[in-house]
TrEMBL record:
<keyword id="KW-0378">Hydrolase</keyword>
<dbReference type="GO" id="GO:0016787">
    <property type="term" value="F:hydrolase activity"/>
</dbReference>
<dbReference type="InterPro" id="IPR023214">
    <property type="entry name" value="HAD_sf"/>
</dbReference>
<protein>
    <submittedName>
        <fullName>Putative hydrolase of the HAD superfamily</fullName>
    </submittedName>
</protein>
<dbReference type="InterPro" id="IPR041492">
    <property type="entry name" value="HAD_2"/>
</dbReference>
<dbReference type="InterPro" id="IPR023198">
    <property type="entry name" value="PGP-like_dom2"/>
</dbReference>
<dbReference type="InterPro" id="IPR036412">
    <property type="entry name" value="HAD-like_sf"/>
</dbReference>
<dbReference type="Pfam" id="PF13419">
    <property type="entry name" value="HAD_2"/>
</dbReference>
<dbReference type="InterPro" id="IPR006439">
    <property type="entry name" value="HAD-SF_hydro_IA"/>
</dbReference>
């Protein structure tokens, strides 16, 4: 195994729970229930699958999309203040660096959104490659982000492992030909993941040398 490529939202930092809570609060303020079953389609990809703000504005004609978006973004920022990395993330990055494994990031989010979090949590320097929505025409579940990350790292997909938290992300990695380790979060743990994934409840305490050895035997 020559490279490990991490997803960002929900994998390194639990931003997805914060988005869910921010949208839910907006819906409650307008006396409506947030349609979680529809929102689940967007996890790991973009709001093209379901736009919560457009959906609410169609029902609440006095609500302006721009105002709603600013309210949700402000709530999201507030919810993430002081939010730590998910358990085991920093230790995993340090261990992979020690082992000489190339580390990349492949995210359906935009660079301007992701980079400040990486800098804030002092993990930006671990990533030799950061592939974002700005770099491809199609994001996850399309394989383009993982294909690009592998290309930039100079490794074949069969020699790389993706670390994901969502079905959309896992599907993208599998389609690109990578091994996939899924570490679902509170929002995604009940979702249906594609076949071919390896699962862990957390990265905390993960023996990376043992995991890599077991994947090489598959």
């Amino acid at each position: 195994m020559k490279a490990v490529i991490f997803d960002f939202d929900g994998t390194l930092l639990d931003t997805e729970r914060a988005w869910w809570e921010a949208y839910s609060a907006l819906y409650r303020r307008h006396g409506r229930q947030f349609p979680s079953h529809l929102y689940a389609k967007t996890v790991g990809t973009t709001n093209d699958a379901f736009d919560p703000i457009q959906h609410l504005c169609e029902a609440e004609t006095n609500l302006k999309p721009g105002d709603a978006a600013r309210e949700v973004e402000a709530a999201h920022r507030e919810l993430l203040e002081g939010e730590p990395l998910r358990p085991g993330v920093r230790a995993s990055l340090e261990e992979l660096h020690r082992l000489g494994i190339a580390i990349g990031l492949a995210t359906s989010s935009h660079r301007a959104y992701v980079e400040p979090f990486l800098v804030q949590h002092r993990i930006r320097d671990f990533f030799a490659v950061v592939a974002t929505a700005d770099d491809v025409e199609q994001v996850k579940p399309h394989p383009a982000l993982y294909q690009l990350a592998c290309q930039r790292l100079g490794v074949a997909p069969r020699n790389a492992l993706a670390v994901e938290d969502s079905p959309n992300g896992a599907q993208a990695a599998i389609a690109a030909g990578l091994h996939v380790l899924c570490v679902p979060n509170a929002l995604t743990q009940q979702m249906a993941f594609p076949d071919g994934c390896h699962f862990r409840r957390s990265l905390e305490g993960l023996d990376w040398e043992m995991l890599i050895a077991s994947l090489l035997k598959d």
